Amino acid sequence: MSLAVQRVIPGPVPPHAQQHMVRMRDGVLLATDVYAADPGEPAPTVLARLPYDKNSRYVFFDRIAQRFTSRGYVVVVQDVRGKFRSQGQTLGWTGEVDDGYDTIEWVVRQPWSNGIVGMFGDSYYGFTQWSAVASQHPALRAIVPRVTCTNNGPGVASYDTGSGPQPPWLEATTYQAEVWTDNDTYEFDVDLTRRPLLAAYEEAFTAIGKRSAGFDLIVGGIPLAPYNGPHPYDARPVPVLHCVGWFDNLGIAHMRDYTELARRPGWSAVQYLIADTIDHENYFLENAPVSPDADHLVDVDALDRMLDSYAGPALQFFDAFLKGTARPESVPRVRWKLGHVGWRTSTTWPPPMVTQTELYLAEPASATGTCPGGTLTPRPAAGTESAEWRYDPDDLVPSAATDTFMQLRDHADERPVLDRDDVLVFTSPASHVPLDLAGPVHTVLHVESTAPTFDVFVRLLDLAPDGTARLILRGCTQADGPGGVEVALGHTGYRVRPGHRLALMIAGSDFPNHLPNSGSLENPWLATAPKVSLQKLWTGSAHPSRLCLTVLPEAQARFGGGDPR
Question: What is the pTM (predicted TM-score) of this model?
């Protein structure tokens, strides 16, 4: 039975938009919709450049445009090169610098433009904003990148988290195969249990009748530079409103952009942050798990409610930096949501007066049993202790969600995973006072393996009094020898409520989100018989494996102190 493939073609251009074919410097024409253009009243333009069909319900730009045009902006939405109605080669993360410049140049030459441009959008159309920054067009005055990052490119199967080499991210590979094969998008269910795994994707390309160049670059380990100009960090600074999701699967990389630019002269003065309890597809923690009437992918009323919070911060930002109808001081430097509590503002991120608290992994002999397992304590135990966990390619540890882009849609109870005998679990004691996480979180783990290369996956979960466990943060790294490894789990704003506990889980696999390790030096894409391996975690004062938290000062009462920043 052949693989079923669903081809997704362009949707109709809305009647309130006018499509133009805009010529790039090499003669390629890009399909571009313009909303609310009035030559008699030139206005600032909000531009979005994306690969997901500018006219699809998935990107809902007909509804977004109404919100911007009602505030006096022209909205321009473009299919990027090689996608849907646009011409050119289909290869993501290339050519966006020049195409961004040329599109802005076309915009400012139109009679309805006042010569001022801002950019807006999620994920890949956050990357196209950074590419336009790298182009350094003088008309680009502000950007609002949402749930995205700068440090990706063709041939890259994972994102830079600061934790060293990363296990290949299968979701990113499948994305390349589905989205970046030709102008259309193809939807199919790959059998990720096949060996070699590469054969499953080959079946998809056979069914489609063509290949994805981006997929081949990933499997071949051939990264290409995404910017044919300066890296955005080294370009002319423009005001940036970073819209981050605490549960976004790109959240670690996005916050690396924010923290890096906040340290750079010139950029630091124009960095703004809004961080919400959302995942990549804009589902909210407060609605999780999501009921049908709150699911914006299927319910129109839910979509309208979501779009108010989606577009609102950008409108406020553009009013200050594009139209000048509001003062820049009216925009909070940092606005962040504390999960299970609500919105707060701050002058910096992390907020002033946070403290650093370290919880040490103790009683590892209990960590291989059912939850609660080992303990998280304020001080390391004397001496040295250890625990082992197994990596079995025939019994892989399930991922927190099969689709991490929609992590909060189901927000599954992970207690069954914590109770597996091939993971390690450490828990903090329950407390009558809340614990407020507000900043970066990471682990330092002293590990070794019987395999020449091995993966370390870490999840931080909220263990409720009823025994259910739900994800707060996650991270991973790939190691090739014994020693200490740091695993970045990202930033968060999250309240661990009274009676709840933190649970830290360590595993050797994360399937189907990540490519299973071969357990050897064999290419994991080509492995037909991956090998079992045994990993060991060392704890105690000589090998202080630990969880490092950034917390608000009230948490000192819970753990007995902390070092002020």
Answer: 0.95
